[in-house]
Amino acid sequence: MKSTSVHTIEVSEAQNLLSLLPDSSALAWVRGGDGLVGWGEFDRLEVAGADRFERIRLWWRERCAHFTIHDEVKKFGTGPLLFLSGTFDADEVSVAIIPKVLVGQRNGRTWITWFGDENAPELQPGVKPEAPLNLSWVGGAISPTQWEINVGKALAKIHSGEISKVVLARDLVAQSDLPFDSRHIMGKLAENYSSTWIFSVANLVGATPELLVRLNKGLVTSRILAGTIQRTGDDERDLALAASLARSSKDLEEHEYAVDSVAQTLAPFCSSTNVPETPFVLHLSNVMHLATDVTGVLTDSLAPADLFTVVRELHPSAAVCGTPRPAAQRVIKEVEDMSRGRYAGPVGWIDSKGEGEIGIALRCAQINPANAREIRLFAGCGIVQGSDPAKEYAESQAKLLPIREALESA
């Protein structure tokens, strides 16, 4: 493979990143106006198997070895990047994409990265995306009744001692007379859920509140969410609900499993870790979560772990799988009986140094690649001792709300 020039320069004006996207297949990872967007494909890899993250890493390293990088900015998120959207289950196909053009923005600085020796591409707003037309809901792979039955089966596994926690998912399919456009969905999500990471990779689009891992200058950060309560819209009532969530033994137990799983996984790679004793309550527009930010400092060695290594070990976390992990994975296959695709998988970006930000693909939907007039929404709930099937269904409905609102708002 011949060498390819990659240039990064700073641009003077701030950008509305999502408005720059030229088409619905463009890439995005944006939070509160900052982040990264990309378009065009320099290269792509689609891969399945238990070694999928290692194979993507080797492929990315081989590509980077043939880049001649001219980076005038040299900040977190500059230079050539890889967008990753991994599957929950190893048997399904994960996607890695290297965009031809990237625009990044962070802390008041904006930059552009592009491949080739031509001048920097001009930044112009894309065509305004169209909203769905004549939206209709056509059910999903698991009916509401069957999902509550599945929760009952999972509770039986918990009562028998086979598992302590398992996360079960369900889906919902919508159709439209016009193709679904990820740019329209992201725009609505950014309006209503600005504190989440808005993402789009290979027709998977969403707004995740959960950061699987960020790696920057040797510091590892993971935001864990587990334990949820729906908001009412009444501020006084919601404050009382937040207090009840913070005291809920069922939700605290679910949260503890998720935090312990991440902390134990990170420990072998770190010289030190910080795990807060108690979670805080994260307030989103539709729900509130128990949340904990776990941090660690990578061990200073000749070959410190990169983001691929940490993702490989963390995924699937207890927040989207369960505890103990191998048993919970077996229960999901046995009880859920549904393809998750890239829902609940790692999603985000990685730079040429192996650093970056990877979230968990939650509050998301998959536009059907064979029929863009169909989209599939996903939601999941953590099942532990004391879970109630009807209440868990109501929680799953609340988690579907962000994408439903984005689709239903013209």
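Second entry:
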Amino acid sequence: MPIRIALCDDEPQQIMQMRRLLQEWNADKASEIEIRAYNSAEQFLFDYEANPCDLLLLDIEMNGINGMELAKTLRTKGDMLPIVFITGFSEYMADGYDVEALHYLLKPVRKEKLFEVLERFSARGQIRTQVLLPCENGTMRISEDSILYCEAMGKQTHLFLSDGQKLICTCGISKLAKELSHDFIPCHRSYLIHLRFIRSISKTAVTMDNGQELPLSRRLYESVNRAFIVYYREKLS
């Protein structure tokens, strides 16, 4: 499956340059890349639900909705899409902590800096993992990054997604856990939570990015808290 990279910039010349650099970076790679270009944040948001991406290279200074506003819109929805900001002004960098930007690149973008960011992205396994799951209407392919948490319901498991929808999986939560990556951990015998979407942890509950509070078993507190800290230390390193 190709790495899907979106470019969002209202300067055609910048889009052309970034497309050329991405193709040059990918020339000696085993995996392919798929590049989509957008000349506004509005255009990106209109297309994003139908055509998701794995990485967004985003200009900050754009007409209409600017890049920072676009990033905040995604994060408000619980979407942790990796974002690399591209800007001509270094003062924007402090704002990136609020939206957990993967990196900043200053214009004019240097090839070496871009390639370094792309290598880090690729090496850290940021590409969205697709899994095949048995559901009510047959087998479905779903991105792990769309799953906030899973809740056991008898012999079924309910998957709560970042877009607010719920998917019913026809297998138990123990079997489901074997299909998902190590980014999913139990916080209770009835719940699997996605580390990417944890907002905070208390002694008795885990709060997800959408505000949902899930019970945290006393015996699992230490392991969940440690996994949460390790996950974000690695992400920010």
